[in-house]
Amino acid sequence: MARPAKKPLSKKKPKVLAYDLGGTKVSVGVIDSSGKILASHREPVLISQGKKATLDQLARLGLEMIKQYPEIEVAGIASAGPLDPERGDLLDPTNFKGPDGPWGRTPITSILKKRLKIEVVLENDAASALLAESWQGLAKKFRNSMILTLGTGLGTAFICNGRLVRGGNSSHTEAGHMMIIQDDESALCGCGNYGCAEAYLSGKFFAHRARKRLKNDQIDAVQIAARARRGEKAALALFDEYSGHMATTLHNCYRIFGPEIVILTGSFAAAYDLFIPQTQEKLRYLMRRYLDLTGPLPEIQVSTLENQAGLLGGAYIALQKIGAL
Q1: Interior CA angle at 175 toward 49 and 76, to 5°?
Q2: What is the count of structural domains for the chain?
Q3: N or C: where does the chain have the smaller number of CB atoms within 10 Å of the terminal CB?
């Protein structure tokens, strides 16, 4: 009698370490090749204490995860930029300043490779988030997509015809530093210039400008949104102005990259109901001549990955490194 066929041995899904490094927080997690987050931790980042303190923090968090999952062989870092993904260096990130000054060029992957004793790869946080959206989120069914991360800064990334867009020398598309109103001294950006999109659209800079308008040094973006939802005219006017700057930014990006969907993420995206309807109306006006030729305006949606897009993006580049995707 023939023996029953043996069941094939189940293969374990590869696991990687992922970081999401921003100007105010850092997340670390272990994620498998299906996109399942097996473990994660988030805490305030120590950038205000200096570069060494921050790098020590990243090493500590990574080693704690590796201790739980010793089979991990590679880590992916999704970080605020500018950065060089090929060399694995941070290039003096705009919002990374501590008591010892700006970071300058920092070979973060080489440093962590020595500390963690595994391979480490690096990608811009917005690009990582958009890769995560294409892998697990809202951009899965689109070949042309765009993301805006509305947080401490304004991260941007674009996928065109199914490929992540890069500039010369593998540089990232830093559309957050596209100037909306040149030399607007009320809009000083973290990069040192005036009038960048980031100086109007990031949650940090929105709150900074609002404090001056409302003559209230204590109010934050969450409180301003609450006031707007209660119908306070001054707060509503701030969001109306915001929608105009958002429409201008999206118009410029649409004319260059042609996204079919724009995904909003980051903490300030929670205020989407206060600016998206006006943004769509103003964008439709800016594009009025071309709508019949270019097709419908892009969808504008808030990420469904919540605060995990950066971690999933870090995992995506790490899984690519080991050929698991």
Answers
A1: 55
A2: 2
A3: N
As given in the structure block, the two tokens for residue 162 are 């199914």
147 and 36 fall within a common domain: no
- 217 part of a folded domain: yes
Instruction: Please tell me the predicted confidence (pLDDT) of residue 11.
Output: 62
> How many angstroms separate the CA atoms of 293 and 38, rounded?
46
Same domain, 182 and 283: yes
* Residue 289 in tokens: 């001549």
From 311, 298, 302, select the one nearest 264 (Cα to Cα).
302
pLDDT, block means (10 residues), the chain with 325 residues: 44 91 93 96 96 97 97 96 92 88 95 98 95 96 95 92 88 90 90 94 94 92 96 97 97 94 94 96 92 82 90 96 88
Token pair listed for 212: 């001056």
Q: Give yes or no: residues 49 and 91 share one domain.
A: yes
Q: Which residues contact 277 (CB under 8 A, 6 or more apart)?
A: none
Structural domain range at position 217: 138-304
Q: Are residues 271 and 167 in the same domain?
A: yes
CATH number of the domain to which 255 belongs: 3.30.420.40
The pair of structure tokens assigned to 156 is: 């941007």
pLDDT at 2: 44
- Give the C-alpha separation, 30 to 38, whole Å: 5
